[in-house]
Amino acid sequence: MTGCVALRKDVYYVRLTYYDKNHYRKDKWVSTGLSGRGAKQKATAMIQSLIDKYSYLEKSEHPAKMADYLKMWKELQINEVAETTYDGYHTYIDRHLIPYFKDLNLNIQDITAGHIFDYVNYLSNDGGRKDNKIGGQSTTSIRKIISILRQVFDYAVLYGDIKINPALQVPLPKKKNKKDERQVFMTAEDAQKMLDAFRNEEIGPIVFVTLYYGLRKSEALGLRWQAVDFDANTITINHTVVGGSRIIAKDSTKSYCSQRTYELLPDVKDLLLKLRDQQEDYKRRLGSGYVVNDYIFKNPNGMPYRPDSLTRSFKRALDRHGLPQMRYHDLRHSTASILVD
User: What is the pTM of this model?
Assistant: First the structure.
């Protein structure tokens, strides 16, 4: 059972979230009778006592099936972690963990270290992929998936559903030495070849700006017209777009120091002015079918680029022009080497 404070009709309530005997998620709202200044802090202090008082509502056993337990744990995290973190949990649990353990049809109490070890081997081989490509999941993905499993089992131990965490006994694939990771650092000549090749690509403008300023992908996707001052010739980084198959917008950057203002370089200014005119033309032609928003880089229908879509488009464009494969983030790495050149 978990609890949180919420204001309803000027009075603070504690919302208790629990699972009943049929393992359906339920909420119970309990009025604290508190309102006004300082009431929220007092109401928060009451949460644990209310959890103890109403603990009888919660079923004595959590969902026994491992697949059900994973689903329950994921739902509990929705208000506990950042949206981007939850998005990762959702992807790994729904696409990888639940299908695998649903096929096993085992209760959580019956899962052993051997089952987890077999699962790591499964992920390391072709069975762990969902895109039908040869090879297993990356070391990073496997470590993230097993990390989630460890958290789920820790929760089960805490609530007395199992005695030990079986995932703690299973060794994880070692992280690759960063020196061994394939990173691309383009020279100024290489970069110019790429920009020339991408000139007529739809994603050409965002690649151009990313490379010129050394932006992170999230920063480039998050650029909005309001961040560009064509009179003062400045462009400000203060908004990001993250996520994978969906867009998660944040009025923040990776760190405080990442919020910064650059000079609007002449080449970039010309490009953005042309892009703005092009988008106005799309808007006129599509009418109500055009998605209105303030983002600079988007599809012809006005819909902002999704992070995963940009990654795929970038790789396909590299293939089309016979350019070396690289990650989108390698554009940022290359900015420094270009400046050195």
Answer: 0.59
